[in-house]
């Protein structure tokens, strides 16, 4: 069934001013508002049609697009960002728009939603580096509010149901007049819910929810890191009186590792290297998250030398290539030497003779720099 022209719906011409369009909208919205039409489906459909027409014609940019392309611009997936509107109308917002403007409100006259969504929750989860890199399934226990089963979240005893508040007529707010001004306040009778529970549920005492510790299974994806959050939709606190539940956010924290330090997708570690292997070169074993690996050390290796082992790091949860393992070698000076070992080291030192710059280039360069520094001070 084709839609009626929006200008025809509001009863205005295509040359109507913004003020005329708004005036027509207010008149029709008040005429067909569900609170006045007592559940008449035909009039409710007209109300939705009026609301839809005003959402387009009341916006100058959308109106210009509609004038050029018609309804096609606002169909599902179309250009106006309006796709799929016809499924339902937010009567509460329209009520606030119409009556808020009449009583001097604008945006401030808009009433609050009767259903207060449940609070979001946060759960702090500590993981080892291995668990974070590989991922795992964990069970967590979360103390929270859940929907009351006996009353199905309504707060009313089984067999009864909440009644519309007689003070605010289900709107959750009332108008308080002070001279020429009207102030909108939360209804004191129903506390803004728009409903009165005369026969409350014995389990939740009318709240529609009860305290409970939930056990949840959470799948931790491989590659997470400290600061990452996993959102579990609808697993937060249940709202009061059947309102939607909030979300649960699992906050990841990775414990410090005794060997590795993670930086993004790369891992870093310090590897002790013997004096002899550093001088002569050789092959050593280094740890990786997948087990041991061989690392070839060239001769005359110096302390703090970095070696990169490609593909031995981490694959980030956000995708991309696997990182690397960066090994920094730390040369260890021999300790607890016996007399023969000390004698051999002395012989080694003597064998180098006075040609220290050849065997220890950094040492010679350092002392040359020190000499120049003191010579400059005495000038």
TrEMBL record:
<feature type="binding site">
    <location>
        <position position="148"/>
    </location>
    <ligand>
        <name>Zn(2+) 1</name>
    </ligand>
</feature>
<dbReference type="InterPro" id="IPR018253">
    <property type="entry name" value="DnaJ_domain_CS"/>
</dbReference>
<keyword id="KW-0346">Stress response</keyword>
<feature type="binding site">
    <location>
        <position position="168"/>
    </location>
    <ligand>
        <name>Zn(2+) 2</name>
    </ligand>
</feature>
<feature type="repeat" description="CXXCXGXG motif">
    <location>
        <begin position="201"/>
        <end position="208"/>
    </location>
</feature>
<comment type="subunit">
    <text>Homodimer.</text>
</comment>
<comment type="similarity">
    <text>Belongs to the DnaJ family.</text>
</comment>
<dbReference type="InterPro" id="IPR001305">
    <property type="entry name" value="HSP_DnaJ_Cys-rich_dom"/>
</dbReference>
<dbReference type="Pfam" id="PF01556">
    <property type="entry name" value="DnaJ_C"/>
</dbReference>
<keyword id="KW-0863">Zinc-finger</keyword>
<feature type="domain" description="J">
    <location>
        <begin position="5"/>
        <end position="70"/>
    </location>
</feature>
<dbReference type="InterPro" id="IPR012724">
    <property type="entry name" value="DnaJ"/>
</dbReference>
<feature type="repeat" description="CXXCXGXG motif">
    <location>
        <begin position="187"/>
        <end position="194"/>
    </location>
</feature>
<protein>
    <recommendedName>
        <fullName>Chaperone protein DnaJ</fullName>
    </recommendedName>
</protein>
<dbReference type="Pfam" id="PF00684">
    <property type="entry name" value="DnaJ_CXXCXGXG"/>
</dbReference>
<dbReference type="GO" id="GO:0008270">
    <property type="term" value="F:zinc ion binding"/>
</dbReference>
<comment type="function">
    <text>Participates actively in the response to hyperosmotic and heat shock by preventing the aggregation of stress-denatured proteins and by disaggregating proteins, also in an autonomous, DnaK-independent fashion. Unfolded proteins bind initially to DnaJ; upon interaction with the DnaJ-bound protein, DnaK hydrolyzes its bound ATP, resulting in the formation of a stable complex. GrpE releases ADP from DnaK; ATP binding to DnaK triggers the release of the substrate protein, thus completing the reaction cycle.</text>
</comment>
<keyword id="KW-0963">Cytoplasm</keyword>
<dbReference type="GO" id="GO:0005524">
    <property type="term" value="F:ATP binding"/>
</dbReference>
<dbReference type="GO" id="GO:0009408">
    <property type="term" value="P:response to heat"/>
</dbReference>
<keyword id="KW-0862">Zinc</keyword>
<feature type="zinc finger region" description="CR-type">
    <location>
        <begin position="135"/>
        <end position="213"/>
    </location>
</feature>
<keyword id="KW-0479">Metal-binding</keyword>
<dbReference type="InterPro" id="IPR001623">
    <property type="entry name" value="DnaJ_domain"/>
</dbReference>
<dbReference type="InterPro" id="IPR002939">
    <property type="entry name" value="DnaJ_C"/>
</dbReference>
<feature type="repeat" description="CXXCXGXG motif">
    <location>
        <begin position="165"/>
        <end position="172"/>
    </location>
</feature>
<dbReference type="GO" id="GO:0042026">
    <property type="term" value="P:protein refolding"/>
</dbReference>
<dbReference type="InterPro" id="IPR036869">
    <property type="entry name" value="J_dom_sf"/>
</dbReference>
<feature type="binding site">
    <location>
        <position position="187"/>
    </location>
    <ligand>
        <name>Zn(2+) 2</name>
    </ligand>
</feature>
<feature type="repeat" description="CXXCXGXG motif">
    <location>
        <begin position="148"/>
        <end position="155"/>
    </location>
</feature>
<dbReference type="GO" id="GO:0031072">
    <property type="term" value="F:heat shock protein binding"/>
</dbReference>
<dbReference type="InterPro" id="IPR008971">
    <property type="entry name" value="HSP40/DnaJ_pept-bd"/>
</dbReference>
<keyword id="KW-0143">Chaperone</keyword>
<keyword id="KW-0235">DNA replication</keyword>
<feature type="binding site">
    <location>
        <position position="204"/>
    </location>
    <ligand>
        <name>Zn(2+) 1</name>
    </ligand>
</feature>
<feature type="binding site">
    <location>
        <position position="151"/>
    </location>
    <ligand>
        <name>Zn(2+) 1</name>
    </ligand>
</feature>
<feature type="binding site">
    <location>
        <position position="201"/>
    </location>
    <ligand>
        <name>Zn(2+) 1</name>
    </ligand>
</feature>
<feature type="binding site">
    <location>
        <position position="190"/>
    </location>
    <ligand>
        <name>Zn(2+) 2</name>
    </ligand>
</feature>
<dbReference type="GO" id="GO:0051082">
    <property type="term" value="F:unfolded protein binding"/>
</dbReference>
<dbReference type="GO" id="GO:0005737">
    <property type="term" value="C:cytoplasm"/>
</dbReference>
<dbReference type="InterPro" id="IPR036410">
    <property type="entry name" value="HSP_DnaJ_Cys-rich_dom_sf"/>
</dbReference>
<feature type="domain" description="CR-type">
    <location>
        <begin position="135"/>
        <end position="213"/>
    </location>
</feature>
């Amino acid at each position: 069934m084709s839609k009626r022209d929006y200008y025809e719906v509001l009863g205005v011409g295509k040359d109507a001013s913004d003020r005329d369009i708004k005036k027509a909208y207010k008149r029709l919205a008040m005429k067909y508002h569900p609170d006045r039409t007592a559940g008449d489906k035909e009039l409710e459909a007209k109300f939705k049609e009026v609301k839809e027409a005003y959402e387009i014609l009341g916006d100058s940019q959308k109106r210009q697009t509609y004038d050029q392309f018609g309804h096609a611009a606002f169909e599902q997936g179309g250009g106006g960002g309006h796709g799929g509107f016809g499924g339902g109308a937010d009567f509460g917002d329209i009520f606030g728009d119409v009556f808020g403007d009449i009583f001097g409100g604008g945006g401030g006259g808009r009433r609050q939603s009767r259903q207060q969504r449940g609070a979001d929750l946060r759960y702090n989860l500590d993981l080892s580096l291995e668990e974070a890199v590989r991922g795992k399934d964990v069970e967590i226990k979360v103390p929270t509010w859940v929907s009351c089963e006996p009353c199905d979240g309504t707060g009313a005893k089984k067999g009864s149901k909440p009644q519309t508040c007689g003070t605010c007529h289900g709107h959750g707010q009332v108008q308080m007049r002070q001279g020429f001004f009207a102030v909108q306040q939360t209804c004191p009778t129903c506390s803004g819910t728009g409903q009165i529970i005369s026969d409350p549920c014995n389990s939740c005492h009318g709240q529609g929810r009860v305290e409970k510790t939930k056990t949840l299974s959470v799948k931790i994806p491989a590659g997470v890191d400290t600061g990452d959050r996993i959102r579990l939709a609808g697993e937060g606190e249940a709202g009061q009186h059947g309102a939607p539940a909030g979300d649960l956010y699992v906050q990841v924290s990775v414990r410090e590792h005794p060997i590795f330090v993670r930086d993004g997708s790369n891992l870093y570690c310090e590897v002790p290297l013997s004096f002899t292997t550093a001088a002569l070169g050789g092959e050593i074993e280094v740890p990786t998250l997948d087990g041991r690996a061989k690392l070839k050390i060239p001769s005359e290796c110096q302390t703090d030398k970095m070696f990169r082992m490609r593909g031995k790091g981490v694959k980030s949860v956000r995708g991309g290539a696997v990182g690397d393992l960066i090994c920094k070698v730390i040369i260890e000076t021999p300790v607890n030497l016996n007399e023969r070992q000390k004698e051999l080291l002395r012989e080694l030192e003597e064998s180098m003779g006075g040609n220290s710059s050849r065997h220890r280039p950094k040492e010679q360069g350092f002392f040359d720099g020190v000499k120049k520094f003191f010579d400059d001070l005495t000038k």
